[in-house]
Amino acid sequence: MTDTLSTAVSHELDGNALLDAYRTMRTIRAFEERLHDEFATGEIPGFVHLYAGEEASATGVCLHLDDRDAIASTHRGHGHCIAKGVDVKAMMAEIYGRRTGSCHGKGGSMHIADLSKGMLGANGIVGGGPPLICGTALAAKQKGTGGVGVAFFGDGASNQGTTLEAMNLASVWQLPAIFVAENNGYAEATSSTWSVAADNIADRAAGFGMPGVIVDGFDFFAVHEAAAEAIQRAREGGGPTLIEVKFTRYFGHFEGDQQTYRAGEVAYARENLDCLKRFRARVTETGQVEAARLDAVDAQVADLIDAAVEEAKAAPKPTAADLETDVYIEY
Ligand SMILES: Cc1ncc(C[n+]2csc(CCOP(=O)(O)OP(=O)(O)O)c2C)c(N)n1
Ligand SMILES: [Mg+2]
Fold it and tell me: Which UniProt keyword terms apply here (predicted)?
């Protein structure tokens, strides 16, 4: 049975929690918009896939997580990393390929990981994350930690056998796992309306005997509420949930994508649907947070991103000798 959540109440979040949520979403947005500009200079090696527009998903889910919990991410992973608490400066240095980076500059954008934060890694393999989460969720269940595993994956990844097998296994073993399908409408240039053989990815949950929920991904509060229910159920032994979060990515599939396959939708979403604008309007209208406090967060985040870029550019690159370290377990 698939339910639709489009609005939700925010009464469980006090002013400080709302500010935390806003700070996380603003940090992701500022990080990504800055990377968009910096990538164009040619200084950043490798591929970069930006998460801007999708901030409410990572933030709304990860706000419920703590040190017991682990997440698996995708090639579009910066938002998941930031929301799970990975150091923003270390992430920026990693993307610039510097020794001070989260993986000592050897991974780059698509391989940022920080096991100390329960961030199991961005992943260049589409559909690579869900099976990992079965492992971490099984470990949590066996050890009785109360922890959960969350797999973020895209609409394209939702068609991968690895994802479907992981959902089946999670249900058979009643694992504390949450599958978050981030449906941004495209897998590279292929529309999900063309490639996903169902009206909704969440409808597939019924085939695996787990609840499926569809959420407006531009609405932080809707994501937060759906995630609260799924995570609580998982922690209490109630098994996995599939949450489909629907939205639009603001940039191309990768930086450099000419996006000839779409027109107009990004401008519309930025103007009318944007998660940060909606969040600000809601919490200021209800009087939960003053606009000046949100402005202060914007300024602090801008300073953090400036410093992160400046320090990343000044940091040393790995040397040839570094090739032989961190090959197996050191980090
Ligand atoms: C197993 C595998 N197949 C194909 C690719 C090439 N590829 C990289 S990203 C991508 C599209 C993924 O789309 P989606 O899962 O919707 O994530 P999004 O990029 O929209 O966030 C593809 C096909 C890959 N990296 N791995
Ligand atoms: Mg997609």
Answer: Oxidoreductase, Thiamine pyrophosphate
